[in-house]
Amino acid sequence: MAGGQSPRNLNKPCILLIVIAGMERFSFKGVASNLVTYLTDVGKMSNSAAAKMVNNWCGVTSMLPLLVAPLADSYLDRYTTVLASSSLYFAGLLALTSLALQWPWTSLDKSGFSSSLSWSLHLISLGQAGYNPSLQAFAADQLDDEEELPCTKNDQSSKKKSTFFHWWYFGICCGSLLGVSIMSYIQDTLGWGLGFAIPSIAMIVSIVVFRFGNRFYTHNTDGEIIHIKSLGGHIVKAIRAATSRLTCGEIAVPDTNKSKVVEIELENAPLCQQDSGSTEGTDPENGIVEILKVVLPLLPVWTMLLMFAVIFQQPATFFTKQGMTMRRNIGSSFRIPPAALQSSITISIILLMPLYDTCFIPFIRVLTRNEKGITVMQRMGIGMFLSVIAMIIAAVTERKRLDIARNVGTLTSEFEALPMSIFWLLPQYILLGISDIFTVVGMQEFFYSEVPINMRTLGIALYTSVFGCGSFFSSFLITVIEHLTSSIGEKQNWFADDMSRARLDNYYWFLALSSAASFMMFMVFCRFYRSRTVN
What we know:
This protein is mainly alpha-helical. The chain has 17 helices and 6 strands. It has helices at residues 12-32, 35-41, 47-75, 78-101, 110-140, 155-189, 192-212, 231-247, 287-295, 299-304, 306-312, 318-324, 343-368, 376-408, 426-449, 456-488, 504-526; strands spanning 251-252, 326-327, 329-330, 334-335, 418-421, 529-530. The strands form 3 sheets. The protein has a two-stranded parallel ribbon with strand order 1-6. Strands 2-5 form a two-stranded parallel ribbon. It has a two-stranded antiparallel sheet with strand order 3-4.
């Protein structure tokens, strides 16, 4: 690929860990992508209840790394964290498989089923909380130039880091594609027991491969230990420091150019221009202060990405429910599983990501005169804009589906479909895939690069937590909107179980407008933000 983005620039341990990450995504997407169908068909939940449960579970899954990552960075090495958390991950998948197989000893009433399902899903969440950020940070540790500080201005180091995140996302997209396309078909046609057993097998195979690859790995433990004490006082100090930084008229993260290699020192001087040269070393007693000094300046970016994360939840919930009402036959016998259409997101990523390097970057490099073409912040902004366009298209398409549904009348069975092809949903899926190439990859590089080397697991956790909070926020929006619209009358409920009466088009317009507002604020913020890295 052009632009130095060839996988040949990565060493063998990096490539092996990218493959392992893809296997994990296969397992997770094999469960998550069609979970809303499992909840409505097997769990007999309403559309809104199923969507909220999926959103809440995804939220917990993405938020837990924020709690686990500081402990992993402080008291465990990343290799050990990956092994321990993957065991919990597999245990959760095994419990979910046992529940779906409906063996005699797993025969449960509705209350017991809901409780067992919740325990299984949250055990997966707990395992993934340590697994994903630690695995990605451990894989990045395998880069040959990892001894350099994250604030280095070395162009070659920046290109290699960008290449790693580029191919890391490519790898997990391949795993996601297989998980969504293959597993949704198996679950819909061959049963949920087999549909959950295969992801469990894939997960245990990935654990074995990771364990036997140990002799190839570089174990970097320098500067990983941070002891956290005196929590209350340090939080107050960090908040006061961040407030001082904001009132100085410029948002910046601490400079680390004068740091030591083994123990990163964060700048603790007054945050205006005066006395900016003095620094204070990282005391083990003040670990929480140093964490908050890094995290708090990133919160504005984190917050403005939330609406992108809310949009990110739609393919696995309401997009899938839309597809269940549409014509999805290919030939006389084959029916496309609605969740399988999510694979178009990953297919578009896999097919178009090479064009990002070979076409987009060379063209934009001429305009910007930037060796990387665009900065990380610009990359995220482009993806945010594309997600707004995707929701506008989704709203228009849903309105067309509703018009057809009202002309046809109420469907008499779950197997009867509207005379509208499910492929009408493809444009919104594909646009979300293109937006992912920009925003998701940019988010990974941004949050990884904007933290010191001894907090990089926490940086990856910050990235995943955006989607966690986005999931919770999505559930909150559904709850509030459902309450407001259903109080007017059942026919006005935006999330009615009868999809011919639901008003998802209004919901999509609401998301489009909210996301556009976040995008505008992000553009303004970027003018004042000073990164710790050279993009």
